[in-house]
Amino acid sequence: MSKICCSTEDDTPDVKKAHKQTASDHSHKEHNDTDGHDHSHDDTDKSTFMLFLPAIISLLLLLTGIGFDNYFSQPWFSGWVRTAWYVIAYLPVGLPVIKEAVESIRYKDFFSEFFLMSIATLGAFAIGEYPEAVAVMLFYAVGEAFQTMAVSRAKGNIKNLLDQRPDEVTVSQNGTYKTIKAEDAKIGDVLQLKPGEKLGLDGVLLSDRASFNTSALTGESKPDTKSKGETVLAGMINLNTVTEVEVTAAYNDSKLSKILELVQDATKQKSPTELFIRKFAKIYTPIVTFLAVGIALLPYFFVQDYVFTQWLYRALVFLVISCPCALVISIPLGYFGGIGAASRNGILFKGSNFLDKLAEIKNVVMDKTGTMTEGVFKVQEVVIKPEFNKDEILLLVNMLEKMSTHPVATAIDNYVGKTDATIQLLNIEEIAGHGLKTTVNGKELLVGNFRLLDKFNISYDADTANMVYTVIAIAYGGKFAGYLTISDSIKTDAKATVQKLHDMNVKAVMLSGDKTAVVNYVAHELAIDTAYGDLLPEDKVNKVKEILAGSGSVAFVGDGVNDAPVIALSDVGIAMGGLGSDAAIETADVVIQDDMPSKIPMAINIGKQTKKIVWQNITLAFTVKVIVLILGAGGLATMWEAVFADVGVALLAVLNAVRIQKMRF
To answer: Which sequence positions are flagged as catalytic?
Structure first.
């Protein structure tokens, strides 16, 4: 008998094991924190046959009993024998529910659905409606079993992720290779990875080149080719030659472990809809219980030919109908399905509340570099004043830029290449939104944008206003030394991304610290609604505040590190290319694991579809229950209609909720 129906925690399999305790180990506080009593079970691991076995036994006994009652009557099938027959038929499906009801009462959750079902069916026994009592609990058990299967399927994606972590790795030790447990591998160990094997820990590639299948991490099926020295991550599958990797992070600190932890924790961050339903059920269930008591007793004072058993039957039907099962299972399952669908496509949500927020988003504010452009820069032009030694200036610029992690630094290093270990850079300082400053050979060296030169009152004669490339200004010894222009290419799916946002009536805004001419050029190419350049970090914050005040909700898309203040301010913070960044996973609300901007509208669409399905379920459950509750109170609905209103609607809601797992976004 499944007990997952009214679980609102939706723990993943690993989390379930961590939370499982005996009843005696529960404190009252723990009990309340898990919604009244422990619903964490391993039913999702049972075979289908074992899951349905109690219901099968009960069904066979029920059908036989109905046969003896109506079609091939037996003289011995009467009195205590008949009662005992139906009691035995009831026990396989009813006993687990009664046990849960008792557990609920132990922890002062008096009005759980288990309590409602127990009272309704035991009451039916009390008035001699044996077949209906068994049938109600039987259909409830079947519904629960189907719901368990649905939950299991919804969690399948996380199980697949868990499977991406190999238990063992092959380590090089003194020229020989030894297989050890992955968690025993240490930082600095060299792993051997054969074709078709999954990497167990994060590391750097020691071999010259290797191709990897990264679909488990990014949702992207295209192979990713890495070169010597590049980062490779746990869960990647080696596609061609034998490869060696040096471990850089412990097993539990790998990016995949962080992703798994993120997805597992996501269902604990409840959406407003889930929180409302949880609170609603706690108020709604006691109300309908007292209404049922009223239906059974109050007519005594108003109805002339009052028959207690007749009104008790109506009250019991009312109780069965009132079970909030359809809402309590289908809504969390709908959100869980949305989180699972997103993670399958390389999008990680930190909670179902962000699915709701993205569904209602009005503005997507994006950074330029690395978000809508490749972030891979190339030096296009070098202009150095004749009075300066060009090679010396470029050498110093390259050495200073090596202190920065900005992609521009890589472009300059690729262009210049040279460094000189004998040259010492002193008092290196990074000036936010401007550039870098140092002292070398007794002279001040400034490398950054032209605002940096303005800040230090250095005059320059370069006309850079209309350049559509990023410009790096250089000053040395208090004089303007020249500049470099650097270009960045727009991502292939960036234009389609903006078009999809417009199709959703979402406004696209670009904020960048790059110069306005460059930002406007990119914005024009992508048909972005509004763009602002030459922004300092505090300017970005002010712009987002303006948008929030005037145009509604904002999702900010950036790298999750430099844009932390803006991500914190926005309704939803989205980190692009977050797979390689611990800070991105920590900072953002949503992590897009690859660099594809097209995942932004996909994430919004998943949020919209999830919310749509959840509200369909809420509407269906409330409408059917209200109709059948009225009919039940008036004596026009039997236990069979009650079963449909509870279990039938729950099954329909669950089937609707799992649709999102099959959708293509």
So the answer is: 367
Of 394, 413, 405, 401, nearest in space to 369 by CA: 405
Do residues 404 and 380 touch, judged by C-beta distance below 8 A?
no
**Once rounded to an integer, what is the mean pLDDT over residues 446-463?**
90
Residue 169, beta-bridge partner list? 180
CA 531 to chain centre: 30
CA dist., res. 36 & res. 106, Å (int): 10
- CA-wise closest residue to 326 among 661, 660, 656, 663: 656
| Whole-number Å distance between alpha carbons of 317 and 116 | 10
Of 375, 281, 360, 264, whose CA–CA distance to 328 is shortest?
Answer: 281
The yes-or-no verdict on residue 24 having pLDDT over 70 is no
The model's pLDDT over 276-289, given as tens digits with 9 standing for 90+, comes to 776 777 787 788 78
Integer angstrom CA distances of residue 92 from 53, 58, 319: 9, 6, 21
Please tell me whether residue 444 adopts helix, strand or coil conformation. Answer: strand
Cα(311)–Cα(464) distance, integer angstroms: 87
Separation between Cα atoms, residue 577 and residue 573, nearest integer Å: 13
Q: Enter the DSSP assignment of 646.
A: I
Give the pLDDT of residue 321.
Answer: 77
505 — pLDDT class (breaks 50, 70, 90):
very high
With a cut of 50, say whether residue 23 has pLDDT above it: no
Confidence band (pLDDT; 50, 70, 90) for 458? Answer: very high
Continuous segment of H or E residues that includes residue 256: helix 255-266
pLDDT above 90 covers a percentage of the chain that reads: 27
d(CA 356, CA 359): 5
Whether the per-residue pLDDT at 237 is higher than 70: the answer is yes
pLDDT of residue 13: 33
CA dist., res. 639 & res. 645, Å (int): 10
CA distance 492 to 598: 10
- In whole numbers, what is the pLDDT of the chain averaged over residues? 81
Q: Are strands 572-576 and 554-558 parallel, antiparallel or unpaired?
A: parallel
| Interhelix angle 649-657/325-344, nearest 10 degrees | 10
Name the burial class of residue 61, with classes exposed (0-12), middle (13-18) and buried (19+) by CB atoms within 10 angstroms of its CB.
buried
Per DSSP, helices labelled H in 267-324 are 272-297, 299-302, 308-322
What pLDDT is attached to residue 266? 59
Residue 619: count of CB within 10 angstroms of its CB: 10
For the chain, the 3-state helix, strand and coil shares in percent, each to the nearest 5, are: 55, 15, 30
Sign of CA dihedral 535, 539, 541, 547: negative
Structure-token pair, residue 502: 């417009």
Q: For 198, which DSSP code?
A: B
Contact criterion met (CB below 8 Å) for 15 and 34: no
Handedness of CA 134, 137, 142, 143 (dihedral sign): positive
The 10s digit of each residue's pLDDT in 364-376 is 999 887 788 887 7
Spatial distance between the Cα atoms of 530 and 509, rounded to a whole number of angstroms: 5
User: Are 507 and 366 spatial neighbours (Cβ–Cβ below 8 Å)?
Assistant: no
What integer pLDDT is reported at residue 31 of this predicted model? 37
For residue 133, pLDDT beyond 70: yes
Which among 525, 524, 511, 635 is positioned nearest to 566, based on CA atoms? 511
> What single letter denotes the amino acid at residue 306?
Y
Mean of pLDDT values over 204-209: 91
